[in-house]
Amino acid sequence: MKETPNLSYITKLSNGNKVFEKNLLAIIKKELPLEIGAYESFVNEGDFEETAEYVHKINHKFKILGLDKGHKIAEAYRLNLLEKNFLLKLDFEKILAILLLYIKTV
C-alpha cells in the first residue's frame, strides 16, 4: 500500500492551535522546494556528502507530514550516500514528487 502524506502529526503537535498549524505548513511550503532544488544540484554535481545533508533536511519534513515509511527510505538513502552510493535514489525521488504535490493542495 502506498503511503499518503497527512497532517496528523502537525494536528497532534499543535494541540488544536490552527495558527500554529498554518505557520508550520507555510514554512514547509517555503523550505521544501528550496531544499529539493539544492538536493538536485548536489546530485547533479555528484557531491555525495552535501546530497546526504539535504536528504537529512528533507527527511524531517517526511516525518512531519506522516510519511513513516518514506522517512525510513530517506534515512537508508542518506546512509547509502555516505557510502558514495545512489541506491534508493529513485524511491526517494518518488516520495519527493508525492510530497510536492501534497503541499500544493494543503
Automatic annotation (TrEMBL):
InterPro entries in the cross-refs: HPT_dom_sf
- Top-rank lineage group of the source organism: Bacteria
The protein's matches in Gene3D superfamilies, at most eight in alphabetical order, are given as: HPT domain
Q: Which GO BP annotation is one of this protein's?
A: phosphorelay signal transduction system
- What name does UniProt use for this protein? HPt domain-containing protein
